[in-house]
Structures are given as structure tokens and as C-alpha cells.
Amino acid sequence: RNPYYSSLYKKNDCNLALSNYVAADINQRWKPERPASSIQWGCDLPFYKHSKEVGDGIVIAGRTSRDFSTVIQALNQSKTKGTILYLKGHLAHKGEVSENITLLESDNEQPVPGKQQGWKKVKDLIPIYQSSRAIGIPLYDQDSLAGLTSLMDCLGSGKPVIMTRNHNIDLDIEKEKIEK
How far is CA 126 from CA 2, 34, 121, 170, in A? Predict the structure, then answer.
């Protein structure tokens, strides 16, 4: 249906995807000469600083397909402490934000190495993650790998995660007990 993707997938020497589901979808939809394979995306554990502190509240961060509005409503109702890191123009919440919620906005522009420009870099997120009890990844229903990078940050930080199911990601949070 889309000549660009058809041409792209059929003429590559190798097609790689970040999940088995996406690789199977490429193979079924585009029928490349050489089947797509999945590669695993992981985190560099020595990069993340681990804290023995349990932490307090929940941290929500991320860029793609985040349902911040539902999280804000839940935090308002439960009075749970929460910190939401978002890009300018991506909050999409028109209602009340109670005092138990901290909103941290970043400019929606590409970061530049060595400069304090653009969205927060992972090294700046780690101390925020470490001060939390858990990390949340609330997603809108979508058909992408949204949330995968944030999930790797959770694994690297050693923090429990609460995440909307995403059938494109090959990691079962409950089976692996990452939520605990």
C-alpha cells in the first residue's frame, strides 16, 4: 500500500526491529526477500546509579504517546506524590493539578551535547528517578514502540514500573516482576 515502505523493506540486505512483534509485522505486511529479525534493546547498567533508598512518589517521564492527563487525574484523586516531566506543548491537561504533583517542563527541541538545551538528558533524569518509589509510563493506545526507552531507564535504575500494556514490546512486566 505504501510504496516507500514496500521498497525499503524489500530491498534491504537486513531488516532489524526492536521487538519480535514488529519483525513479524514487517514480514507479514511487506514480505521482504530476507525476513526481518528482532534485536534486543537493553540498558547499560553501570551508567545508572543505584540507590538503596526506597524513594517517595511516582515519576512520569517520556515523549511519545504519553497519557499525562489520566495520570494527573489519578494523582489528584489518590493524593499520591507525583513528578511529571514533559515537553512544552505535550501536557494536554486542562483541569486542576493538585499540590502533590510537581510539573517539570522542558523545551521541545533536540538536545545539544555539552549544552543545557532541549529535553532532559538521561543523566539528569537518573537522580529524579532515584528519588521516586516507582516510575510510571502511561501510554495512549498506539501501534508503536512508545515507552521502550523509558522502560529501559526503569530497568537500569532498578525501580518498579507501572506501564500501560504495549503489545509491541516483548517484555512482560508482570511476568518479570518489574512492578515490585
Answer: 40, 40, 9, 24
Distance CA 180, CA 135 (A): 11
Within 10 angstroms of residue 42's Cβ, the number of other Cβ atoms is 9
Q: Please, what's the b/e burial string for 107-135 (b: 16 or more CB within 10 A of its CB; e: otherwise)?
A: eeeeeeeeeeeebbebeebbebbbebebb
Residue range 103-151, pLDDT digits in tens: 999 888 887 788 877 778 888 899 999 999 999 999 999 889 999 999 9
Cα 105 from Cα 119, distance rounded (Å)? 9
pTM, 2 dp:
0.86
The closest of 167, 159, 172, 178 to 49, measured between CA atoms, is 159
- The order of strands in the sheet holding 58-60 is 101-106, 82-87, 58-60, 134-137, 161-163
- State how beta strands 58-60 and 161-163 pair: unpaired
User: What is the dihedral sign for C-alpha 172, 69, 135, 115?
Assistant: positive
